[in-house]
Amino acid sequence: AVLVTAQLPAFAQPGQTIDVTVSSIGNSKSLRGGTLITTPLKGADGEIYALAQGNLLVGGAGASAGGSKVQINHLSAGRVPGGGQVERAVATPFALGETIDLGLNSSDFQTASRVTDAINRVMGAGVASAVDGRVVRLRAPANPGERVGFLAKVEEIRLDAAIPMARVIINSRTGSIVMNQAVSLGACAVSHGNLSVSISSTPVISQPNALSTGGQTVVTEQANIQISQDKGSLIKLDTAPQLADVVRALNSLGATPQDLLAILQAIKASGAMNAELEVI
């Protein structure tokens, strides 16, 4: 049993081909060399939008013998390039109405205002108007051909990149921390100590006496737990107006990425960090 998925691109028409991803959902150890039989791909509404079939391309390799196994990448997932054929088109309001809404990737009012000014400067006053920080509304021609040319000109308008909003992204699952160039750090003091917990398990075999009756050999586990905490020192961090200074100040603490998660949250709570903290 496999799971077949695909992404239907915008303006897809019946007869066009799309790539298909096939993943094992059963106990299959490898899909290498497999062939996908005709499979209907349905949308959330239950309608069939494409049909998929073809030979799988698996990027992994593996071999096993005598209880040993070697595997490179994944063998239980693969792709069928061009294996899906679109059977139903998705209705789009592109050619309907007098306006077209542009959805911005960056949701902030500064970017929406700069996009509106740039379009009005090239295409004429009153063509673009900002609805909110995400949507810019354009007055477009009614003819579909002219509307395509209108959007082609809009795509070519150059827009100078604005200074991004200061943001620190923390991935609590992997311990990754990413911050942009707008992050600044005010003067503060941080006390940091290393706390380590070590848990070891040793198998212990208990055997009955040689002359005992009804005894059994039992294997138990003996756990040993040790907790150690180093003495922490109070470290003062000077004002860091640039990203390089922020990284240099945090590296002076000698903390691991997992420790920095708690340190950055505490610095943000104290008001010493000029950035938005986002945990994903």
Low-confidence stretches: none
> In which range does the helix fraction lie?
10-25%
Q: Largest beta sheet: what is the strand line-up?
A: 1-2-7-4-3
Nearest-integer average pLDDT: 80
So what's the overall shape?
flat
The number of helical segments is 4
Strand content: 35-45%
What is the gyration radius calculated from CA atoms? Answer: 30 Å
- Strand tally, please? 19
Largest sheet: 5 strands, antiparallel
* Overall tally of structural domains: 3
Distance between the termini: 32 Å
Order of helices and strands: EEEEEEEEHEEHEEEEEEEHHEE
Quickly give the structural class.
alpha+beta
In short:
The protein is built from four helices and 19 strands. The chain has helices at residues 109-123, 144-155, 243-251, 257-270, and strands at residues 2-5, 17-24, 35-42, 48-55, 61-65, 68-72, 77-86, 99-103, 128-130, 135-139, 167-171, 176-179, 184-185, 188-192, 195-206, 218-229, 233-237, 273-274, 276-279. The strands form seven sheets. It has a five-stranded antiparallel sheet with strand order 1-2-7-4-3, with no helix packed on it. A three-stranded antiparallel sheet has the order 8-10-9, with helices on one face. It has a three-stranded mixed sheet with strand order 12-11-19, covered by helices on one side.
Give a description of the structure.
With 280 residues, the protein is of the alpha+beta class. It folds into 3 domains: 2-86, no CATH class; 99-155; 168-207 and 217-279, no CATH class. The chain contains 4 helices and 19 strands. The strands form 7 sheets. It has a 5-stranded antiparallel beta sheet with strand order 1-2-7-4-3, with no helix packed on it. A 3-stranded antiparallel beta sheet has the order 8-10-9, covered by helices on one side. The protein is flat and about 100 Å long. The two termini are 32 Å apart.
